[in-house]
Amino acid sequence: MGNNVKVYKGNVIFTKTPQEFEQLEGGYIVVEDGKVKEVAQNLPEQYKDAEVVDYGDKLIIPGFIDLHLHAPQFPNRGLGLDKELLPWLETYTFPEEAKFKDTEYAKKVYSRLVRELWKYGTTRSVVFSTIHKDSTKVLMDLFIEAGLGAYVGKVNMNRNSSPDLTEDTQESLKITEELLQEYSDKSPLVKPIITPRFVPSCTAELMKDLGDLAKKYDAPVQSHLSENRGEIEWVKELHPDSKNYADVYDKLGLFGQQPTVMAHCVHVTDDEIKLMADNGVFVAHSPESNYNLSSGIAPIRKFLEAGVNVGFATDISGGHAISMMDVIAGAMKGSKMRWVYLEEEYASLSVPEVFYLATKSAGRFFSKVGKIGSFEEGYEFDALVIDDESISDLNPRSLPERLQRFLYLGDDRNIVERFVSGKNLPEPKVY
Ligand code: GUN
Ligand code: FE
């Protein structure tokens, strides 16, 4: 037995596959150097002298992963949601993002955001900041201080934006590269990610050079794809020679040439789905945002059948709630509405499936950082301890039933501990 071993006991539940839960009532998780060594019903003999933390009747589940959110939009949660994407960006989003020129403001907002992610058990996230270098550094440093895992991207935009958010192309690239240099190896948990906002806000020249930077620094890429019909029409006008929206990114080296996550993908064509599957592009499915901004319901079952990687996301503040539990329940509801109204041939999503998508499936986007999203051997011990007593009833319930109810009725008050890479994280400081 190594020195750095800890054992956690409780009702362990997670998903190795989308089909079913792995579950151990009163089971043990052996953690060595922050990684899961073993999950067992009985404590293996060689660990009998290890320290055991007993969580009694509580649940132990993998931490949640949010594959797409906008940190500077945290103050806008719940606002402007009677608009569609493009007017919403103009009236609410861009004016708020412009404020992050001020790093003091950034530190106040971002420290509150990071505390909220901690509260709701989002142990890893993939985040847009703004165009501003110093505020982006503030955000990355706050994630590092909190011990939460994140990819954080300084946003690039050099066309069709408000004047105070329109960058000079060379300056945009220079700042992006400086952040890649400074942060690629600064922390094992928090890394930079290349972040062209979306096709309408970036010239082909900028996007091509960002693709080159992603390659040079072996950095992942995030952006938006086919969220809203007006947006898609606009991309067609801007790039009449491209086959489709995805093709614009693909030709510029931003579509799976490096690990890539595209938010939304609500209205993608069959050709685009095939390209996503072939290139290993991840979809950050953001159901709450897609309902709020009248974007639509993404065809998740179709993605899964085509072999596309899928995870879930809040898309704060298109999505109003920071809780991944709300997003998971929202994804289930949307899949049922698609089945009822649009396509009986694609079954709605099951509970183990949505839990798998929110944990192990999304976790594969972090493969350069480690194995994330499960309790199989070698996975980072990213875990939540759930006290569901306040939402229990008088009947005995199975672990999958208790987990399901937590996803629908639970909130931050039910989450009593949060671990990332084996470290039990204290509440982050707010400035
Ligand atoms: N497309 C481009 N920018 C944004 C954004 O900030 N939010 C959403 N939901 N879609 C976008
Ligand atoms: Fe978004």
Automatic annotation (TrEMBL):
<comment type="function">
    <text>Catalyzes the hydrolytic deamination of guanine, producing xanthine and ammonia.</text>
</comment>
<protein>
    <recommendedName>
        <fullName>Guanine deaminase</fullName>
        <ecNumber>3.5.4.3</ecNumber>
    </recommendedName>
</protein>
<keyword id="KW-0378">Hydrolase</keyword>
<dbReference type="InterPro" id="IPR006680">
    <property type="entry name" value="Amidohydro-rel"/>
</dbReference>
<dbReference type="GO" id="GO:0006147">
    <property type="term" value="P:guanine catabolic process"/>
</dbReference>
<comment type="pathway">
    <text>Purine metabolism; guanine degradation; xanthine from guanine: step 1/1.</text>
</comment>
<dbReference type="InterPro" id="IPR011059">
    <property type="entry name" value="Metal-dep_hydrolase_composite"/>
</dbReference>
<dbReference type="GO" id="GO:0008892">
    <property type="term" value="F:guanine deaminase activity"/>
</dbReference>
<dbReference type="GO" id="GO:0005829">
    <property type="term" value="C:cytosol"/>
</dbReference>
<feature type="domain" description="Amidohydrolase-related">
    <location>
        <begin position="60"/>
        <end position="424"/>
    </location>
</feature>
<comment type="similarity">
    <text>Belongs to the metallo-dependent hydrolases superfamily. ATZ/TRZ family.</text>
</comment>
<dbReference type="InterPro" id="IPR014311">
    <property type="entry name" value="Guanine_deaminase"/>
</dbReference>
<dbReference type="InterPro" id="IPR032466">
    <property type="entry name" value="Metal_Hydrolase"/>
</dbReference>
<dbReference type="Pfam" id="PF01979">
    <property type="entry name" value="Amidohydro_1"/>
</dbReference>
<keyword id="KW-0862">Zinc</keyword>
<dbReference type="GO" id="GO:0008270">
    <property type="term" value="F:zinc ion binding"/>
</dbReference>
<dbReference type="InterPro" id="IPR051607">
    <property type="entry name" value="Metallo-dep_hydrolases"/>
</dbReference>
<keyword id="KW-0479">Metal-binding</keyword>
